[in-house]
Amino acid sequence: MDKFTIENMNLYYGKFHALKDVNIRMKKNRITAFIGPSGCGKSTLLKSLNRMNDLVEGCKITGDIRLDNENIYGDMDVNILRKRVGMVFQKANPFPMSIYDNIAFGPRTHGIKSKKELDRIVEESLRDAAIWDELKDRLKKSALGLSGGQQQRLCIARALAVKPEVLLMDEATSALDPISTGKIEELCLKLKNDYTIVMVTHNMQQALRISDETAFFLLGEMVECNSTDAIFSNPQDKRTEEYITGRFG
Amino acid sequence: MREYFDKELTQLNDSLIEMGGLVEQAIKNTMKMIVDGEDLLDIAREHENRINEAEKSIQSRCLHLLLHQAPVAHDLRYVSAALKMITDLERIGDQAVDIAEMSVYIKDKKQVFNLTHILEMADNASKMVTEAIDAFVKSDIEVAKKVARQDDIVDELFNRSKNETVELIHKNKELGSEALDIVMIAKYLERIADHAVNVAEWVAFSITGSCDLSD
């Protein structure tokens, strides 16, 4: 079943045509990876999925982006959209507050006040992000004191705390060491049972290891989207072949 | 941008061509033993050793490439095909020496047995191996398909040769042991042709991503 459906989508930053007639479907409970050289539009597309581009001046989008068949640029409340579609960035960005408050921030914003309920959400989110055992005894300590890998998993836990349906990950492991990267990759494989994950990655081995589908972007065009196995073993477009085999990029 | 990797792939290609050449030599040597009755068994054994060494060396080269370069797309298919192909080439080498060893036993009985079909099989199987290697060197799917089509001819010749030998045993029971050698030689030749088809299939896989050689 398709979670996101994008049809004839074009995106402009002023006069610059950043995404050109993109058509792609992202399946529910699957990991879709966007790959391509820098500046190809993959992060731009990812940010469009929860309307982060709304904040960019001069950004204009045409075409359809539908979440569960509902146009996200139609009547949908942006706050509801961002609750349903969470995002984790390249650089971990914990709030300068305690670990507990970082996780409870979203649920509080959405009106949850009961301590018992917040305690439950904090534990559940940290457990889902596979970091509960490491942090359970220091919940009141500042999140800024955590290692880079822990901070990133905390950010994933924070995104999970508002019970999203989709998790967008923009190069979420590119600043992490291999052990932390491995933990987040394992986490993604576990999370996809309950969430739909869309990730941008420059690490092709990562796309190979964990994604189900891969889409290759070049110069604002979605060149090819297929099962990850097919993209990496027998790409149909010469440009995909040349990029993934390191002949350019 | 990937100069080192391309150089390693070229070296792998050269090693495969070299191993293919050794296999062709082994078959030619065996053919001489059957047709001319020459005693070339030592050379046959030496060929087999060199083919086995080539297999080990190429296998290690492929594993090195998989480990260090993590190839994808055509590179991945090429290295995987190379790994599979060398097993077939090595088996052809084994069968060539098996035939060479048996040809010693039938050397003096060639007047009694009609070897027409065996020689025809050897000729066809040998051509198939050469063409399969040629298909690989030139990355030519049409040549690979041609190899697959020829397999039916060898299978047919095997059946004829087997039936004729069975008839001969009925007529002359004392020749049972040599007759069995003839059938075994025919069977090895038939298997060589099968391995040539396998090599052709791996060539197809390397080019298209599928082993399918049907037209």
UniProtKB/TrEMBL annotation, chain B:
Assembly and oligomerization: Homodimer.
Record lineage: Bacteria, Bacillati, Bacillota, Clostridia, Eubacteriales
Presence of the UniProt keyword Protein transport in the record: no
Role summary: Plays a role in the regulation of phosphate uptake.
Protein name per Swiss-Prot or TrEMBL: Phosphate-specific transport system accessory protein PhoU
Localization terms from the record: Cytoplasm
Pfam families for the chain: PhoU
Classification via SUPFAM superfamilies: PhoU-like
Domain PhoU: from-to ranges: 16-101, 118-203
Superkingdom, taxonomy of origin: Bacteria
Keywords, in A-Z order: Cytoplasm, Phosphate transport, Transport
Gene from which this protein is expressed: phoU
Family to which this protein belongs: Belongs to the PhoU family.
